[in-house]
Amino acid sequence: MATVIQEKLHGMQISKTQASPTEVKLVISASSPELESVKKHVLGHFARSVKVPGFRPGKAPADLIEKNVDQRAFLDEFLEHAMNGLYRKAMESEGLRPTAQPKVQVKKFVPFTDLEFEVETEVIGKVSLPSYKTTKVPKPKIMVGAKDVNEVLKNLQTRMADREEVQRAAKDGDEVTIDFSSRDEKGRPVTGAEGKDHPIILGSKQFIPGFEENLIGLTANQKKQFVITFPKDYTVKALQGKLVTFEVEAKKVSKLERPKLDDGLAAKAGPFKTLVELKADVKKQLKLEREQNAKQAYENEIISRIANNSTVDIPKSMIDEQVMSMEEEEKRNLAYRGQTWQEHLAEEGITEEQHRERHRPQAEARVKAGLVLSEIAEKEGIKVTPEELEIRLQLLKGQYKDPTMQAELDKPEAKNDIASRLLTEKTIEKLVGYAAK
What we know:
Layout (H helix, E strand, L loop, with lengths): L2 E7 L2 E9 L2 E9 H15 L15 H7 L2 H24 L8 E8 L3 E9 L4 E2 L17 H14 L2 E5 L8 E9 L11 E7 L21 E7 L13 E15 L5 H7 L5 H34 L2 E2 L3 H21 L4 H8 L3 H29 L5 H14 L3 H7 L2 H24 L2
Antiparallel strand pairs: 1-2, 2-3, 3-5, 4-5, 6-12, 7-11, 8-9, 8-11, 10-11
Helix pairs in contact: 1-3, 4-6, 5-6, 6-9, 6-12, 7-9, 9-12, 10-12
């Protein structure tokens, strides 16, 4: 049921109708005192462009400028400034956060003495947070053992191995160079599941389970056809659990002669004098990588727990926008893999609308998390200072040598985006401090 609230504020009157938690209609009206200041401001815009006999540009009195100005242009700009200013004040007065361009309709206008207009817009609804300061999440322990280091060293030996082509059947540990193609159960080619002169080391588990095993026993120039069931957790959703037929031709079989794991290998691998130094560096890099991954996962878990225990009235337009953003990102990834959007939809057997609906829950979760973080930042009084923004801008500019890219960072929208990211980072840092206590 819609609720109507009326309020008088600073020379204007607001009548608010709350159709739903995220839909609001405002009727805003103002009279002469409020509009007079707008009139003076707008006349100032025209001062230098209006020619008044006997006066230099910009020096004529306001009443003479008004008499000589193009009335249509003057009234149009007056209405734009008046409604924009009154709308902003009304939003601030009512504590509303609009999420889309409003629908505006002028109801009454007597030039410079009386204005009434109606605004319909979507707004962010109420955000109810849990007791986020008491949300505790145990930090994961980062372990790097000898087995992990040895696995990296083994892969290094393989990359540095000498290849010797052999005229025999391929066996585990050999490198087989293949051409391959694939088709799904309907006989259609599977995008991305084809290759020419592709080297694969048998036993490396680079491909999906069962693929490398089917290459064992092949000799050069031999062809083979086999069927593989893709894993249910495969990264490409359309192929999860699907049967795919592969046609493979072995171009050559090579025996690998792996170098010994000694100081000589360490010297070839980088600026190391001994194998001990190489192992220490591998362990250090592995730890840094795992710490970074663990940090990201830890932060995501904190945000997820708090967001899941929060309630937020989210405007539909925000979720729609997030769905489209995710879709554009997916299209870019598909283009990188050489697949068109329509091919992707056909492969998954769904329409564009079905695809969007499938991603809506994830989009809603992302929007909700962002609104929750924004609400926490507000409660905690977290701000991004001009100095912090400038430091981040300079760091980003240092990553780009192209003057065009550096100029892009100076645009207002880029600065706003960077400031938003900084605010998110600072808010997450605050939550991590609470969660780890």
